[in-house]
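Q: Please design a sequence for this.
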C-alpha cells in the first residue's frame, strides 16, 4: 500500500470533516452538520456528468481503465531499480563467460522487458535491431501510460465544470420556485453543493491520481532505459564492473546508498 497516498487522502478528508463538524466559536461538535453536505441530486450531476462526458471523449477500452488507474495509486509505488541493477550485473557475469548460458536464467527473470531483451541477445539478433525493438516497446508502453493519464486528467478538468453546471440547474430551480419557501432550500443546496462536489472530487481524487500516475510512469521509463542500456552492454560483452559503474547512475541518491549496502552485504557473505 502506498503510504503517502493513504495519508494524503486521510488528511484531506479529516481536515474537511473538522471544518464541518467543529464550531470554533465555542469548540462544540455538531455532527448533524454532515447531513447538510449530502445531496444525492448534486452527486448524480457531478459524478454522473463527469463519467458520461469522459466516456464520450475516449474509446471504451481507454475509458474502462480509469477505475484500475485510481485503484493503482493506492498500491506500493515500488519500481525495482536496485533489484534490477543487481540482476543485470549478475547476468553480465554469466554472459562474460558464455553468452548462451544466459538462456538458462531467462525463466527466472520476472521483468518481461529485461527477459525479452536478453532473449534477443541469446538469439544473436543484430545490435541495431535490438536497439530498435527495445526502443519501440518503450515508446508504446509510454504512450499507453500517457493515454491512461489523459483519461484521469480529463475527469479532473470536467468535474468542476459539471459542478458549475449543477449550480446553474439549482439556480434555475430556485428562481422558478421563489413563491414556494419550502422549495428554496433544496434548490439552493443543489446550486451550492454541486460546485463543492466538483472541486472536491477533482482536487482530492482525479488530479492527485493523475499526478501519481505521472510519477510512476517516469519511474518505470527510467527502469526501462536502464534495462535497455544494460542489455546492450551485455550484448557488447562489456565487463560487469563497467556496466555496474555506468548503470548505478540511474539510481537516485538514496537508492545508490541502498545498492552499495546490498553489495557490501553480499560481498561479506561470499567471504
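A: Design:
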Amino acid at each position: 500500500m502506498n503510504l503517502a497516498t493513504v495519508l494524503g487522502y486521510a488528511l484531506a478528508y479529516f481536515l474537511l470533516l473538522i471544518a464541518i463538524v467543529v464550531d470554533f466559536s465555542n469548540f462544540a461538535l455538531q455532527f448533524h452538520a454532515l447531513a447538510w453536505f449530502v445531496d444525492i441530486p448534486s452527486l448524480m450531476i457531478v459524478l454522473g456528468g463527469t463519467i458520461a462526458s469522459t466516456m464520450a471523449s475516449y474509446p471504451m477500452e481507454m475509458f474502462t481503465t480509469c477505475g484500475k488507474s485510481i485503484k493503482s495509486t493506492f498500491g506500493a509505488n515500488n519500481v525495482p531499480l536496485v533489484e534490477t541493477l543487481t540482476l543485470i550485473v549478475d547476468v553480465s557475469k554469466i554472459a562474460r563467460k558464455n553468452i548462451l548460458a544466459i538462456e538458462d536464467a531467462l525463466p527466472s527473470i520476472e521483468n518481461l522487458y529485461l527477459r525479452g531483451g536478453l532473449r534477443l541477445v541469446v538469439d544473436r539478433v543484430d545490435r541495431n535491431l535490438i536497439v530498435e525493438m527495445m526502443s519501440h516497446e518503450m515508446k508504446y508502453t509510454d504512450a499507453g501510460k500517457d493515454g491512461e493519464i489523459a483519461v484521469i486528467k480529463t475527469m479532473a478538468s470536467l468535474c468542476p465544470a459539471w459542478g458549475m453546471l449543477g449550480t446553474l440547474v439549482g439556480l434555475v430551480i430556485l428562481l422558478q420556485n421563489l413563491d414556494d419557501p419550502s422549495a428554496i432550500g433544496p434548490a439552493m443546496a443543489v446550486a451550492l453543493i454541486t460546485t463543492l462536489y466538483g472541486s472536491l472530487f477533482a482536487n482530492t481524487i482525479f488530479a492527485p491520481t493523475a499526478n501519481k500516475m505521472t510519477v510512476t510512469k517516469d519511474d518505470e521509463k527510467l527502469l526501462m532505459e536502464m534495462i535497455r542500456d544494460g542489455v546492450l552492454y551485455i550484448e557488447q560483452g562489456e565487463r560487469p564492473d563497467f556496466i555496474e559503474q555506468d548503470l548505478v547512475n540511474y539510481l537516485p541518491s538514496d537508492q545508490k546508498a541502498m545498492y552499495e549496502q546490498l553489495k557490501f552485504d553480499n560481498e561479506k557473505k561470499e567471504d
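Q: Thanks. Anything notable?
A: The chain is about 80% helix and 0% strand. Residues 63 and 81 are 30 Å apart (CA to CA).
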